[in-house]
């Protein structure tokens, strides 16, 4: 791996080998998502506790202060919406010149394995890898399931992650599932967990994040379970204690309860 690629990856994955990405890209297909209507305001108190932001160029340019940010993973796929025919029908949205101009540390693109647009999304990933590798910019593949949340099982996610890695993704983002080690064991590049819709309790979130970390994930890319929580700062700090301080779910939950009244 060359110096530029190593340098960019080390902006994302910290010296302990773990990472905490904060995604605020949801609007690219679902519009002004709850608690993300004003993304600049949402992230202000949260930024100190994450390692990188996952964001589109539009929100980055309009809502993120270039002098006070964290490394950026630029979401560069899109072209579908929640009210359109098929969420899987995405293209690459952002040129390499724009990616470089915005000083992205990495880029992210969704793949939709098993969908009607499987081939297009996988060849989009390959094309993006071809361009970005020329400039030592890591590509993070996002194994998306569209509206079919029931697809989040180890057999399917292991298949998606392995295909993404084979096509050249430097990092893969996927959902946590039971038997998560089946996913990480079959994937030769670092695996990061997404959160999905907001869970009923904080402890539920701490438990799946902890389980995934024990089973080989390098970190998280968690959005709604943080910024849709009534106590987002307590939530992000407690999650950080699992990722970077090896806390247990119970310890994280105690920390959450002690911090939440300060917000
Ligand atoms: C949405 C994404 C998000 O980055 C990803 O789903 C993580 O966010 P959440 O924890 O809210 O699911 O790729 O397009």
Q: The CATH topology is what?
A: TIM Barrel
Class by helix and strand content?
alpha/beta
Question: What is the makeup of the main sheet?
Answer: 8 strands, parallel, barrel
Point out poorly predicted stretches: none
Count of helical regions = 12
Distance between the termini: 43 Å
Task: Give the overall form.
Answer: globular
Strand portion: 15-25%
The averaged pLDDT comes out at 96
List the helices and strands and how they pair.
Blueprint: H1 3-12, E1 19-23, H2 27-30, H3 39-43, E2 52-55, H4 57-63, E3 72-75, E4 77-78, E5 91-92, H5 96-101, E6 106-111, H6 118-134, E7 139-143, H7 154-166, E8 171-175, H8 180-185, E9 191-194, H9 202-214, E10 219-221, H10 224-227, H11 232-245, H12 249-260
Helix pairs in contact: 9-11, 9-12, 11-12
Describe this structure as you would to a colleague.
The radius of gyration is 17 Å and the shape is globular. The longest helix has 17 residues, at 118-134. The model has no long low-confidence stretch (mean pLDDT 96). The strands form 2 sheets. Strands 1-2-3-6-7-8-9-10 form an 8-stranded parallel β-barrel, surrounded by 6 helices. A two-stranded antiparallel sheet has the order 4-5. It contains 12 helices and 10 strands. The chain has a single domain (3-198), classed as TIM Barrel, CATH 3.20.20. It has 263 residues and is α/β, with parallel strands linked by helices. Helices cover 42% and strands 15% of the residues. It has helices spanning 3-12, 27-30, 39-43, 57-63, 96-101, 118-134, 154-166, 180-185, 202-214, 224-227, 232-245, 249-260; strands at residues 19-23, 52-55, 72-75, 77-78, 91-92, 106-111, 139-143, 171-175, 191-194, 219-221. Helix 7 (154-166) links the parallel strand 7 (139-143) and strand 8. Residues 23, 25-26, 54, 142, 194-196, 221-225 line the site of ribulose-5-phosphate.
């Amino acid at each position: 791996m060359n110096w530029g690629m190593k340098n960019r990856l080390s902006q994302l994955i910290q010296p302990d080998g773990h990472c905490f990405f904060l995604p605020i890209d949801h609007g690219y297909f679902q519009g002004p998502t709850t608690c993300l209507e004003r993304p600049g305001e949402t992230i202000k108190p949260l930024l100190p506790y994450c390692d990188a932001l996952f964001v589109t160029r539009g929100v980055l340019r309009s809502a993120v202060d270039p002098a006070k940010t964290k490394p950026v993973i630029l979401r560069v796929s899109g072209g579908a919406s929640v009210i359109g025919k098929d969420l899987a029908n995405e293209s690459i949205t952002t040129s390499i010149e724009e990616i470089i101009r915005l000083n992205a540390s990495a880029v992210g693109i969704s793949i939709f394995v098993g969908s009607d647009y499987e081939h297009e999304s996988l060849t989009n990933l390959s094309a993006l890898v071809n361009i970005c590798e020329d400039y030592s910019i890591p590509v993070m593949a996002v194994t998306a399931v569209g509206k079919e949340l029931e697809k989040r099982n180890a057999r399917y996610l292991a298949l998606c992650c392995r295909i993404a890695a084979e096509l050249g993704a430097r990092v893969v983002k996927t959902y946590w599932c039971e038997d998560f080690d089946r996913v990480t064991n079959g994937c030769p590049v670092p695996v990061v967990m997404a959160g999905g819709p907001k869970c009923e309790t904080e402890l539920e979130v701490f438990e799946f994040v902890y389980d995934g970390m024990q089973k080989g994930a390098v970190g998280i890319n968690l959005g709604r379970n943080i910024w849709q929580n009534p106590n987002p700062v307590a939530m992000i700090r407690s999650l950080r204690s699992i990722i970077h301080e090896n806390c247990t779910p119970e310890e994280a939950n105690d920390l959450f309860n002690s911090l939440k009244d300060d917000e």
